[in-house]
Design goal:
GO terms for molecular function: glutamyl-tRNA reductase activity; NADP binding. Residues 326-421 form the Tetrapyrrole biosynthesis glutamyl-tRNA reductase dimerisation domain. This is Glutamyl-tRNA reductase. This protein has 431 residues and is of the alpha/beta class. 54% of the residues lie in helices and 12% in strands. It has three domains: 10-163, Glutamyl-tRNA reductase, N-terminal domain (Beta Polymerase, domain 2, 2-Layer Sandwich), CATH 3.30.460.30; 173-303, Rossmann fold; 346-419. The protein contains 16 helices and ten strands. Strand 5, helix 8 (200-208) and strand 6 form a beta-alpha-beta unit.
Length: 431
């Protein structure tokens, strides 16, 4: 008998990350919340793509989706359209395409847990993934597959926190920046640090500044109230955003983590400042908010998200040592997810078989019980339902067993032919 394949959408991924794309490429491709929403809508309307997740951080821009065809070229073109790029084909070499369920799903697990982060175990990524999932759910672009996948990932994250040392301490990108500040200002008495922007990364930097207790920290943000709440909580000074250029002049360290399409801190601005010994600029924005040419100014040091490297701390060493435990937890939960996925593959056939048998039962009941009383009908109804359950038991068990040995296609084909399930399904749809 010919083996009839069961057509299923594959879960796929398109990834552009720090591993193969420098920051000057990543900032061109990076998507803000508005662009992500717009791209999701286009993917839904133009290509009927389902179970979609778009993740864009300072380290990566990735699109996960379910489709029976490889839609990577179309998606990359849409990203180019969204970003106003006429030459998006020039960026193709920086994208990695994952077109198999196993590799795309495993990659999403590893990204979500923090195994793929620049600073291993970065805690911010878990919240970024949750927000990406929420954006898809809000547009009804998360079906049963993605819902189950994401909740399995959240459970995996929970196990990693509870069962390993992978999330112990604070070894995120923002913490790496604080370590850098501590190292460079080690010979400066009460270094003056200006934090511009209190988004997720900026807020994390501010909270990690407790590791440099002698530093004099000032916070500023476009929304003054947001900065004030954080400054009050941490005991830092806060200034209106309009005063940040003036505050830069006296600061030893300037950390910028604001979203802006063009440089906020320019070479011309920095040249106008008096720099007696040094001035450290840390650019945690993607796109970058500080002109790279400020390094030409004597005394200026500039670091961005790519060249910040965390020192070999005890925390980081513990995290690295716990990676095998994290990978084991991931493998266990991926296996559990794929068992569910296999069950989902055969559940339509099980339902069709139940409907086929129920249709036969109802037809025969109607044919032979025209003159029966209520008591007789109740007894026969109970008996025939019991018989149907017993008949169903063996094929259902065999189908599930076939799933586990990856041979469900053949079993589905046999059952479909034996019971003419497609015909039964068509009749049900017509009704």
């Amino acid at each position: 008998m010919l083996k009839v394949p069961v057509m299923q959408n594959k879960f796929r991924a398109i990834s552009l990350s720090y591993k193969n794309a420098p920051v000057e490429i990543r900032e061109v491709i990076a998507l803000d919340e508005g662009s992500i929403h717009s791209l999701l809508v286009k993917l839904k309307e133009f290509f009927s793509i389902t179970d979609t997740l778009i993740l864009s951080t300072c380290n990566r821009t990735e699109v996960y989706y379910s489709h029976d065809l490889d839609m990577s070229a179309e998606i990359i073109k849409l990203i180019g359209l969204e970003k106003g790029l006429t030459n998006v084909v020039d960026y193709l070499e920086y994208f990695t395409l994952l077109n198999e369920d196993q590799e795309a799903i495993k990659h999403l697990f590893k990204v979500s847990v923090g195994l793929e982060a620049q600073v291993v175990g970065d805690m911010q990524i878990a919240n970024q993934v949750k927000r990406a999932y929420q954006a898809s759910a809000d547009l009804d672009m998360a079906g049963p597959f993605l819902h189950r996948l994401m909740h399995t990932i959240f459970y995996t994250n929970k196990r990693v926190v509870q069962e390993t040392a992978f999330r112990d301490g604070a070894a995120s990108v923002s913490y790496a920046a604080v370590e850098l500040i501590e190292e460079i200002t080690s010979n400066t008495y009460q270094p003056r640090v200006l934090l511009i922007g209190v988004g997720e990364i900026g807020e994390d930097v501010a909270k990690n500044m407790v590791h440099i207790p002698e530093a004099k920290v000032t916070i500023t943000n476009r929304t003054f109230e947001k900065a004030k709440v954080l400054a009050d909580e941490l005991g830092f000074e806060v200034i209106p955003f309009e005063q940040c250029f003036e505050a830069m002049k006296s600061a030893d360290v300037v950390v910028s983590s604001i979203m802006k399409s063009e440089p906020f801190i320019t070479k011309e601005l920095v040249k106008s400042m008096e720099i007696p010994s040094y001035k450290l600029f840390v650019d945690l924005s993607v796109p970058r908010s500080i002109e790279t040419t400020i390094e030409d100014v004597p005394g200026v040091l500039l670091y961005n998200v790519d060249n910040i490297r965390s020192k070999a701390t005890e925390t980081l060493e513990r995290r690295l040592a716990s990676i095998p435990d994290v990978e084991k937890i991931i493998e266990e939960n991926i296996e559990e997810f794929f068992n569910w996925k296999k069950e989902m593959m055969v559940s339509p056939t099980i339902n069709k078989l139940k409907n086929a048998l129920e249709q036969i039962r109802q037809e025969e009941m109607a044919r032979f019980l025209k003159n029966a009383n209520d008591k007789e009908i109740a007894i026969i109804d109970k008996v025939t339902k019991s018989m149907m359950q017993k008949i169903l038991k063996v094929p259902v068990v065999q189908l599930r067993a076939a799933c586990q040995r990856d041979d469900a296609d053949n079993m589905i084909s046999i059952l479909s032919d034996l019971f003419d399930l497609e015909k039964v399904s068509d009749k049900k749809n017509e009704a």
